[in-house]
Amino acid sequence: MKTAPLNIGVRTLFYMILAVFVVIQVYPIFWVIISSFKTQAEVMSSAPYSLPGSFYLGNYVSMLQNSQIPTYFMNSSIVAVLTLFFTIVIGAPAAFAIEKMKFGAGNQVLAFFLLGIMIPIFVTLLPMFQIYNALGLRNTFTSLILPQVGFNLPICIYLYSGFMRYVPNSLIESAHLDGAGSFKIFTSIILPMSKNTTITIITFNFIFIWNEFIFANTFMTSSSMKTLPLGLKDFVGLYGFTDWGATYAAITVTILPTLLIYFILNKSVIEGMAAGAVKS
Amino acid sequence: MTSNKRIEPWLFVLPALLVFLFTVIVPIIWSFTYSLYEWNGIGDKRFIGIDNYTRMLTDNVFITSFKNNLIFTGLGTVVQIVIGMTMAVILTSITKFRNFIKVIYFIPCVISSMAISQIFSKMLSINPEGVVNATLGAVGLDSLKAAFLSDPNLTLIIVTLVDAYKFCAIYMVIYYAAFLAISNDIIEASVIDGCNWWQQYIYMRFPLIKGIFFITVVMLVSGTLKGFDVPYILTNGGPGASSELVSTYMYKVAFNSVNYGYGSAIAVFLVIECLLIVTLIRKLISKVDVEA
């Protein structure tokens, strides 16, 4: 018995409020996806809330032919994979050192990283822009990967150290007695044990990276290097007023990967985003 | 051996520390230095002390964007708390489809602000007519039809609501998890004592999640003070400065007007503003906590 019993009237009212909220929340997404299957004639003449008459794929064809969306898709994927890789590869050992290596300054180092969660990224844009300009790094993947690794590290280290804190010290001590060095213990015991934390970090960070706008908008000006959010902006700028069908198709394509990952791994996505939010 | 042991942890944290220093900490210090200069990025820098900061006081666009930001923060915080809490309370009270509804409701959180802004820009369009105006027409409310995104009286409210739309589900998830974490014994005892549903919330559940609730207030205020994506993409701060926020104005000053000194000063202002308000809220909360 988890709740006090509710009478049937109140319960019905609850389901009705719920239905209204859920419809408002989901409709815009549903609408853009179904609208992407409308023919040009349907987009022009039928009411915008009507359903398409058939499963028309022409918008996708013209969107793929007339734009660099496939390039943007590729760029976004490269940035996401490399950012995640570097975040994990340098974040996990840091958390291990902080929690499990008898590290005198461990707590201070953790607190220092957690400062990063409070920092608005705007304050770093101009100096980074200057540095990248001087080093010729604008319009390179590095210019997007580096700052995103930097800003994702605090939450990554926070989540890893939250998990590793509860790994029993006796496990590490006995591995030491067996002659394993710290690096070996980290790679063959701690990292495999942290698998769930790694999955959580990867899934919710993937969503942030895939959706990232400000760094890309600031550092990527060459159209061959743009990521999907920026590319979508360009596409809408070019075709948004003439070809609405293709615009809907383009929007749908950009949101598909995150939706897919979300539906497969929604538990870790929700957990990660909620934990990340609470910490900030 | 001992000195080796002492150095070893540093080797593990060094890569992370270097990247973090280079991409987060150094640029902050750098920004602060820029803010004391007049500089367009190419010519000579001229040291002008705090002139960039005093300039904010007389810059009407900045003052407008600051006021707008307060509305964006106040309204956004209230709307997201109300929606998140309502959803969490209902989810906790129903028995069927809980997880399904939670997962569905969370969808906007995983979609980019770019996609969401583009969707709403199409839905709110007047010419050609978007879903909202077409629906208003279809149900006979033609008088409510409007060019929503070019009406300076509406744009600030719209960007606030679209931003709230994108993020409110996070608060539902947080409150819902907090409700579920309350020990069953407490709730069962209250049922035995004859608490009805409403009393259960007023006397047990709301007080028990007070800590989490205060955390979400801090999160929302600091998050909305830094709000950028939706206003920048959906209305670009316009028309005029009607939906300009501090962050979007800072971006324009820095990258469109290429006024690096003044832009950095606004960015530093944003950092200090966030830290001050968050500290203030934390103080208020701990005071309330002690008194309660």
UniProtKB/TrEMBL annotation, chain A:
Keyword Cell membrane: yes
Gene3D superfamilies xrefs: MetI-like
TM annotation in the entry: 12-34, 72-97, 109-129, 141-160, 199-220, 245-265
Principal localisation: membrane
Keywords: Cell membrane, Membrane, Transmembrane, Transmembrane helix, Transport
Record's GO cellular component terms: plasma membrane
SUPFAM superfamilies, sorted: MetI-like (SSF161098)
Subcellular location: Cell membrane
Any one biological process term the GO annotation gives: transmembrane transport
One of the Pfam families matching this protein, by short name: BPD_transp_1
This protein's record includes keyword Transport: yes
Xref: InterPro entries: MetI-like, MetI-like_sf
ABC transmembrane type-1 domain sequence ranges: 73-265
Membrane topology designation: Multi-pass membrane protein
Family listed: Belongs to the binding-protein-dependent transport system permease family.
Name of the protein in question: ABC transporter permease
Species of the source: Paenibacillus abyssi
Automatic annotation (TrEMBL), chain B:
Membrane topology: Multi-pass membrane protein
Keyword entries, A-Z: Cell membrane, Membrane, Transmembrane, Transmembrane helix, Transport
Alphabetical list of PROSITE patterns matching this protein: ABC_TM1 (PS50928)
Superkingdom field: Bacteria
Domain ABC transmembrane type-1 as annotated: residue spans: 66-281
Subcellular location: Cell membrane
GO CC field: plasma membrane
GO biological process, one term: transmembrane transport
Chief place of localization: membrane
Transmembrane segments: 12-37, 70-91, 103-120, 154-182, 202-222, 260-281
UniProt similarity note: Belongs to the binding-protein-dependent transport system permease family.
Protein name (Swiss-Prot/TrEMBL): ABC transporter permease
Highest classification ranks of the organism: Bacteria, Bacillati, Bacillota, Bacilli, Bacillales
